[in-house]
Every structure is written in C-alpha cells, then in structure tokens.
Amino acid sequence: MPLLTFDILEGRSEQQITQMLDAAHRAVLTAFKVPERDRYQIVHENKPYQMVIQDTGLGIERTDNIVVLRVFTSPRSEEQKALFLTELCRELHEQCGILPSDVMVSFISNTRSDWSFGNGVAQYVTGEL
C-alpha cells in the first residue's frame, strides 16, 4: 500500500517514466512484500527552476536525472526501508540509467487507519481488506 510520489524534471519520455515507475514497483515488491497490484504511483514533472535539490553538505553531485521520491506508507522496519533504498537505486540505475546520487527518498509513515482506498471507507478499520 505504499503511495509513491515522484518529482522529476520535465523532459523525460513516456517510456522513460514508465520504466522508472516499473523499476520502483519492483523495489516495493521486493522490500515490502506487498501484492503485485498494490501499486500507487504519481509523477510530478517540474521545470528546472521549480526544483532545488542540493546535498546537505554531503558532497553529493546531482544531474538533471534527479528523482525525489516520497514514500507514504504504514510503518516499515529499518531493514525493509534499507532494502527498499538499495533495490530502488539498483533498479533505477540498471533499468533507467539513473545514478544513485540522483535518487533522494523520504519515508512518511502513517497508520493503517489513515488510508482510504475509495468509497469513503477506511478499509483497514472496517476490515474490508
């Protein structure tokens, strides 16, 4: 049930974006062991002046292939998050040519009762899942 929102610079092709989303989904499947159709992804394309992503003094060099990813999810273990980060960077590099230094991720945790998948119902609370 993670919801992934991607911020990227505009200019990538539909195929490149699809490859990026598919790669990220494989990382979700591997790290979080969710069902195949547990896929929620949104892409925001931005003009270069709309994204300022530096390095917090870590010496990380960025390119125009930058991907900023927010992962909204129920709590995950540190091991799951670490595996996701590793798999995400591997998938994006191997399948899309995106360098690990161009991948920034933030996890936003919430509880299962914070989710509604539709119909005005919090399915985890009502037991509909």
Brief summary:
33% of the residues lie in helices and 22% in strands. It has helices spanning 14-32, 78-96, 123-126, and strands at residues 3-9, 40-46, 67-73, 103-109. α1 runs antiparallel to α2 (78-96).
Structure description:
The chain has 129 residues and is an alpha/beta fold. It has one domain (3-126): Macrophage Migration Inhibitory Factor (2-Layer Sandwich). The chain has three helices and four strands. The protein has helices at 14-32, 78-96, 123-126; strands spanning 3-9, 40-46, 67-73, 103-109. The chain has a four-stranded mixed beta sheet with strand order 2-1-3-4, covered by helices on one side. The model has no long low-confidence stretch (mean pLDDT 95).
Topology:
Elements: E1 3-9, H1 14-32, E2 40-46, E3 67-73, H2 78-96, E4 103-109, H3 123-126
Parallel strand pairs: 1-2, 3-4
Antiparallel strand pairs: 1-3
Helix pairs in contact: 1-2
CATH class designation: Alpha Beta
- Number of DSSP strand runs: 4
Tell me about the largest β-sheet.
Answer: 4 strands, mixed
Average pLDDT figure: 95
SS field, number of helical segments: 3
Distance between termini?
Answer: 11 Å
Please give the CATH architecture. Answer: 2-Layer Sandwich
Features:
129 residues, alpha/beta, Macrophage Migration Inhibitory Factor, four-stranded mixed sheet, 3 helices, 22% strand, globular
